[in-house]
Structures are given as C-alpha cells and as structure tokens.
Amino acid sequence: MAKKKIASLMLIGAVVCLTACGDKTNISDSVEKTEEVNVTSNLEQNEYEKYDELYDSGNLSDEDTAKLETLNTEASQKIASLGDSFFVCEINSIDFDNNTINYNKVEWLTDEDEDKISELGIADDMPNGYYVYDESKEEENIKFSDSTEFYRLISSLYLLEDDLQNINDIKDSHYFNLYTDNDTVVAIQEVYQP
Known about the structure:
Order of helices and strands: HHHHEEEHEEEEE
Number of domains: 1
Distance between the termini: 22 Å
Radius of gyration: 17 Å
Strand content: 25-35%
Oligomer: single chain
Structural class: alpha+beta
Number of strands: 8
Number of helices: 5
Helix content: 25-40%
C-alpha cells in the first residue's frame, strides 16, 4: 500500500516535470537555454505571482517559458535525488525561531487505492481523482534546518525552488511532501492538487 502511494506521488511529480519539459531532448534544450536566459535558482516573490498571472492568461513569452522550464528541470532533478523518504502532510505552522514544523500526516489516496477507498466508502468523494484522508487528525512536530529546501508550483505546472520563508503564503491551502533524513526535514515540496 505504501509503495502504491509513493508511486502515485512520484507519478504526479513526473507528470508535472514531463508536462513542463517534454521528453529528454526538451529537458537538455531547457538546460542549454539556462545560459541564454541567465537564470538564477530562485525567483523573487513578486515573480511567482507574475508568472502565475501570465500563465493563467496564456501570455507567457518564449523567454519566460524557457526560464520556467529550466528552473523546473533543476528543481525536479533535486527532488528526484532526495529519494522516497517522504510523507504527505498538511502544515499547520512553522516556527522559524526554533526550526520546527507542526503538521498533520495524511494519506493521499488515488483510484489505485481501491481497498482503502472501499473501506472508507469514499468512491464518490474523489471528483479530482484523489482524496486526502487524515485518520488521526493528530498534530506532530519535526525539525528542519537552515539548509532545508522548499519547492513550490507555479500554475500547477512548473516546480520551482523558493525561499522557505515564502511557504507561509501558501501553507494554509496546500499539501506538502516532507522529505526527511535522520528525523529532520531536508526538503518540502508542494503537492500538485488537480
């Protein structure tokens, strides 16, 4: 069951990457465009909003698209290197003074989780193809470090690295994968929600 969930979440990440980057040829084309566009690893906070609006209105230029594809490729490669030591959660609060995240661990159920869906009787409650199940509603705490990375989505298509301080802008309405190493969060990834 756990392997199915991990596979489903990895598939969602792969779809986000492949949708944005295309095949391997396009990925290498995007990497080559990095030099042309002179991209930095992070966008400024106002750029996230700008690109969201441009994408939603269909007005992304070729240069903007190349920049986002390059950043998406970089972020996707970093996430892929973290392996599968993660869990899905809802973040309640982040204490930057004590480097602590308060969260509720949840189960991300998809059509593949037939037994659990049947057990819960939620087949009709999945209009977007997923259901977030929080059986215990128990809050937990976990440490993060000053080097913990944060990856967020732009228009549900491009996965980009961002400053962890900006997570407060989106934490109340999104779910996240917390990647851990020795009981410390090393990366946080916003989960795509159709």
